[in-house]
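Lab meeting, item 3. Inverse folding demo.
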């Protein structure tokens, strides 16, 4: 599709250096609105079923919907003062971290939980090792480049929270590739990805600054792709403490389960003894029934069984 016909809901006001919704365009400010990708002026189409911005005819812009939503996201983050960080799930851990955690959890379960309840207890444990939380952003930079032994890497958004850097990588169609993940791990900096495609698919072009900003701030837009080893170790210890606490909470249930299991074993043993006692009688009964059938066959009496 030609860039002239792509519809955009947000533009950049070069006078105020702020983003602006199509709904806030006036005759006074419509000349100052540009596309940050090519720096060309946008045309504001206000009298339309879905008001929008578009490039002028014969635009030379090489951007597209993906690059557009990326630069809007980066501009919004320059103004965001707080962010909700998502939970860290076991699936966000490296293979080694996950294996270490699972082994330690299994030790606690095998030692303290009745064997027949292992599966149920493990299934009911929470899948996250940390909780979400809202944090203040002290500083935000965009398109910042870092050196690594695998080559330079450019980070889309670098925020500073509690005097520590946090990388944020928005993606549209293409997630962060393996090489960039390896470079990020060498920088040892917590890194989040943000799924912009999910947002655009939900709203098409009917979104605005407010709901895009809300999405970017919320925990639901993000996923952890890297965290510091020391931080993960701290959360693993907390998770193991949580498992121990759950075991203590359910100790009465475990004791009740044990007593019932013991009762089952006792009843089974009693049944086996009774069966042992009546087995000769049952055998005698079957022998007599067989003899009756043979005699009936000899004298021509047929058995009809229903």
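The presenter then showed the designed sequence:
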């Amino acid at each position: 599709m030609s860039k002239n016909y792509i519809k955009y809901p947000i533009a950049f006001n070069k006078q105020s250096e702020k983003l602006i919704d199509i709904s806030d365009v006036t005759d006074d400010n419509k000349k100052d609105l540009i596309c940050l990708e090519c720096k060309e002026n946008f045309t504001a189409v206000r009298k339309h079923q879905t008001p929008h911005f578009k490039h002028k005819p014969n635009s030379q812009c090489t951007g597209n919907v993906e690059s557009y939503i990326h630069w809007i996201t980066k501009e919004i983050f320059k103004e965001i003062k707080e962010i909700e960080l998502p939970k860290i799930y076991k699936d966000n851990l490296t293979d080694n971290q996950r294996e270490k955690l699972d082994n330690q959890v299994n030790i606690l379960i095998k030692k303290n939980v009745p064997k027949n309840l292992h599966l149920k207890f493990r299934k009911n444990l929470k899948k996250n090792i940390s909780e979400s939380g809202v944090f203040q952003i002290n500083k935000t930079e965009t398109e910042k480049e870092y050196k690594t032994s695998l080559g330079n890497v450019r980070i889309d958004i670098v925020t500073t929270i509690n005097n520590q850097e946090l990388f944020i990588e928005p993606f549209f169609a293409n997630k962060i590739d393996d090489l960039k993940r390896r470079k990020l791990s060498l920088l040892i900096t917590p890194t989040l990805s943000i799924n912009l495609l999910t947002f655009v698919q939900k709203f098409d072009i009917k979104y605005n600054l407010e709901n895009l900003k809300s999405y970017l701030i919320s925990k639901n837009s993000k996923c952890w792709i890297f965290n510091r080893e020391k931080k993960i170790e701290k959360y693993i210890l907390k998770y193991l403490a949580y498992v121990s606490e759950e075991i203590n909470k359910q100790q009465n249930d475990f004791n009740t389960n044990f007593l019932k299991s013991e009762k089952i074993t006792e009843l089974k043993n009693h049944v086996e003894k009774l069966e042992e006692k009546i087995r000769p009688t049952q055998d005698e009964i079957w022998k007599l029934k067989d003899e009756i059938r043979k005699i009936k066959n000899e004298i021509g009496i047929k058995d009809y069984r229903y």
